[in-house]
Predict the structure.
Amino acid sequence: MMEQRGRDPADTRDPRNQYPAELMRRFEVYFKPPNTAKPKVVRDVKADSIGQLVTVRGIVTRATDVKPMMAVATYTCDQCGAETYQPIQAPTFMPLIMCPSQECVTNKSGGRLYLQTRGSKFVKFQELRLQEHSDQVPVGNIPRCMTVYARGENTRVALPGDHVAVAGVFLPLLRTGFRQAVQGLLSETYLEAHSITLMNKTEDDELGTEELGEEELRQITEEDFYEKLAGSIAPEIYGHEDVKKALLLLLVGGVQQAPKGMKIRGNINICLMGDPGVAKSQLLSYIDRLAPRSQYTTGRGSSGVGLTAAVMRDTVTGEMTLEGGALVLADMGVCCIDEFDKMADADRTAIHEVMEQQTISIAKAGIMTSLNARCSILAAANPAYGRYNPRKTIEQNIQLPAALLSRFDLLWLIQDKPDPEADLRLAQHITYVHQHCRQPPTHFTPIDMKLMRRYISKCKIRQPVVPEALSDYITAAYVEMRKEARVSKDTTFTSPRTLLSILRLSTALARLRLVDVVEREDVNEAMRLMEMSKDSLQADKSASTRTQRPADVIFSLVRELAGEAVGGRRGMVKLAEAEQRCVSRGFTPAQFQTALDEYEELNVWQVNQARTRITFV
């Protein structure tokens, strides 16, 4: 080195010209509290905790970019070439100007120091914002926040939306100069992070990342495991078997395809539309607790900016930055939106891009970017009239735009119909849960939430594919669905997105069985769920009308055929044509003959002797 040339080894050197320990250290020392230490709530960390090692639980709401923070500043003298080192302990520092080396002091040469960036030492620095859980907030208060400083290997551990336990030293933030004079005797505080642990949302334990054992896998994948897993979702809520199966597939998700230049989403979106008091919000809150990453919001309580992204001023640098909303925080998770119908139209349009493209495009305050929002959306809404009105059409009851409805893979209509037997069982279920705070005994034991969360994480690793043999079967089924939608006047909007929904549900079912190839049973179950969701929209119409005998339906079909006849042949129908029409509608030739004879006896129509023509009287 330059400073060692022409120097006597016996000379005493200024400490600032010697290597500091911080520059030579190749390790980081952190303290971890014992496992017996109980985590504190943010509002319980008070003045008596200053300078002590504390553990705080909360949710990360903001994480800044990782920036280099200077730990040791290295300077070079322009006169003698000596290197000077300045360890930095405080948030701010005053750079050295005059060279303190023995040579410069003796010669009084007044050497100037210049900062050497390559010789200095920098450590990674990140600022986190920790907010307390909603269940820890006392009555009538708002959640409190705490600033956490993470250095070195503790950076990039937590993302916004993660539930964490942070162990660290609680310290006051020391200001200098004018800021301290303005601040007076008060001081801001922060937590110097020593260890950051990702936590489960509901229990006070670490996020389970260990593999499932053979015994646990056997416990889950035994007989009827699909029904068992679906029944383990909110077991305290009575019924809704198919809805719970759909919610299970939403948690697992389909396979995302990314051919060149485009992206086909794999996340499943579900809308629960129903009468008041059918446990829609309870299902949403259970899914919010069960999903590893999730956000819960309501229609009126969230704006378009709160859902997507807001432009904020960064406290560290003072620059304009983007802060993600609920959809960005729920990336790779689930976003539950309650009271979806009460959301303002201007705010609801912010969801359109997220539901199909899985991104949020922003052009605000000179920031033009695209944020990832790869989340499944679970929405709950009431019909337009509070309750479902069977005298109105589906469009009048739902009153959501077709562009939005087509983005939902499944749209469930949960109706509260009076039924003496069902009402009795429901009342018994509710009173049992109210008395014992658990679900009534069933033929199977519901799977634990923690075990279920780990099994869903294992399922998500799989990437099942649709084999060539099934492609014709799926396309034929989709064409049939389009034909039915064209014939039926009052039905939901069927578009090519419906075909993608079937593929997504099929791959989710294959993931659930931990296999790599989709089978015909998966496609059949996906189509059954689609049909059940559509039947739920039309069930009320069939229930309100009297059930018709096959003979009555056949009579109406033949009369309709007679009305289509042109010219003088009105009122006359070829018997072969009538039979073909009835058989195509699902009736057997025997039923057609029975109806023919019955109405001939009633003298409604007459059949000629050759039995080739029907004439209405």
The chain is about 35% helix and 20% strand.
